[in-house]
Design goal:
This protein is an all-beta fold and 128 residues long. Helices cover 0% and strands 49% of the residues.
């Protein structure tokens, strides 16, 4: 079993930066990819960015390109999402996810139903 715990959410102003963290514990195996998703009120959960086991490959959604950066530090069992130039439309609950059976550049990674393990989420609110 794998446990994921997010932190770092909060209230920000438009243009601010926030860094989310996701600490991983449990039976993580080599090759496990991880990702950030977000869910705004009344909307479906959407893929934000994913990262390979080594951290050497990333896959960002169009909405995240240029402003958000995903990274991971396996020595610390932690994944991060650096969010810059925040906008009110970034307001959502942000979730981290992990799976050992997906390929980072498969279209399935953007479908939350394909991911095996989830954190509880952290709220990000961006005011104008």
């Amino acid at each position: 079993q794998v446990q994921l715990v997010e932190s770092g959410g909060g209230v920000a102003q438009t243009g601010d930066s926030l860094t989310l963290s996701c600490v991983v514990s449990g039976d993580i195996i080599s090759g496990t990819i991880m990702a950030w998703f977000r869910q705004a009120p009344g909307e479906e959960r959407k893929f934000v960015a994913g990262i390979s086991w080594s951290g050497g490959a990333t896959n960002h959604a169009d909405s995240a390109k240029g402003r958000f950066t995903i990274s991971r530090d396996n020595a610390k069992n932690t994944m991060y999402l650096q969010m810059n130039r925040l906008k009110p439309e970034d307001t959502a609950v942000y979730y981290c996810a992990a799976d050992s059976g997906l390929w980072l550049f498969d279209s399935r990674v953007k479908n939350g139903d394909e991911w095996a393990f989830w954190g509880q989420g952290t709220q990000v609110t961006v005011s104008s």
